[in-house]
UniProtKB/TrEMBL annotation:
Pfam families: Asp_Glu_race (PF01177). Transmembrane segments: none annotated. Belongs to the aspartate/glutamate racemases family. This is Aspartate/glutamate racemase family protein. The keyword Manganese does not apply. It comes from the Bacteria. NCBIfam families: asp_race.
Length: 229
C-alpha cells in the first residue's frame, strides 16, 4: 500500500472527512483491521484565506509547496490537496515534489463522464466559480460548466466561509443551496459538482433532482485507488 499525503486544513472540517473516507475505503476493500497509510499536513486556514482575499496567490502557492515537500519528506508517495479552491496553485505544488499530485478536478470529471453526463453546474467558493482555473480543467475533459448567477454565487460563497468552514450546518442554508441547484437544473444542468470540499457537509443526493458529485469523496476514493494499485 502506498502512503497517501493529505495536504489539508482548508478547512480542517473537510480534511477530517478525507481522513475518514480514505480509511473507511481501505477497510472496505481490504477488510479486517486494515486502514490507510497516510500522513497529514494541516495548514492554518486563516493564513491561507488572507492570501486568497488579498489575491496573493503566488505566496499561497509557495506556502502549499513547502507543505507538500514536508509530506514527501515524511514518506508520502502521492499528494492529495484537500481543497478545490487551492487547486488554483496546483502547478506550484506539482513542481515542488517528485511524487504525483492527484488533481481534484480530474477525479471529478472522470466521475461525471462515467455517468454519461456532459453539462454540469458548479458550486464552490467565488474563486472556484468565477475564475477559470477550475472550470477550464473540467472543460478540458469535454464538460460544459454552468455557474449560478451573481447573487446566488455570493450566497453560496458566504455559507462556505461563514458557516461550513466553522462547522455550522443549518436548514436555512441547505434550503438556499437546494434553490440554487434547482435554478441550475432549470437551465439544463445534468449534474451538480459540489466544488468545495465543505459543501457535502450540507447537501447531498437527496437535495438535488439530478446526480451530485461530492468532490471530497471522489478525490479521496481516487487516492485510495492509487494507493492500492
Amino acid at each position: 500500500m502506498r502512503t497517501i499525503g493529505l495536504l489539508g486544513g482548508m478547512s480542517w472540517e473537510s480534511t477530517a472527512e478525507y481522513y475518514r473516507i480514505v480509511n473507511e475505503s481501505v477497510r472496505e476493500r481490504l477488510g479486517g483491521l486494515h486502514s490507510a497509510r497516510c500522513v497529514v499536513y494541516s495548514v492554518d486556514f486563516a493564513e491561507v484565506e488572507r492570501l486568497q482575499t488579498e489575491g496573493r496567490w503566488e505566496e499561497a502557492g509557495a506556502l502549499l509547496a513547502d507543505a507538500a515537500r514536508s509530506l514527501e519528506a515524511a514518506g508520502a508517495e502521492v499528494v492529495v490537496l484537500c481543497t478545490n479552491t487551492m487547486h488554483k496553485v496546483a502547478d506550484a505544488i506539482t513542481d515542488a515534489v517528485s511524487v504525483p499530485l492527484l488533481h481534484l478536478a480530474d477525479a471529478t470529471a472522470a466521475a461525471v463522464r462515467a455517468q454519461g453526463l456532459r453539462r454540469v453546474g458548479l458550486l464552490g467558493t467565488a474563486f472556484t466559480m468565477e475564475q477559470s482555473f477550475y472550470r477550464d480543467r473540467l472543460a478540458g475533459h469535454g464538460l460544459v460548466v454552468d455557474v449560478p448567477g451573481p447573487q446566488a454565487r455570493a450566497s453560496v460563497h458566504r455559507v462556505i466561509y461563514d458557516e461550513l468552514c466553522l462547522g455550522v450546518v443549518t436548514d436555512a442554508s441547505r434550503e438556499l443551496y437546494r434553490q440554487v441547484i434547482a435554478e441550475l437544473v432549470a437551465r439544463g444542468t445534468e449534474g451538480i459538482v459540489l466544488g468545495c470540499t465543505e459543501i457535502e457537509l450540507l447537501v447531498g443526493p437527496a437535495d438535488s433532482p439530478v446526480p451530485v458529485f461530492p468532490t471530497a469523496r471522489l478525490h479521496a476514493e481516487v487516492a485510495v485507488d492509487f494507493a492500492l494499485a
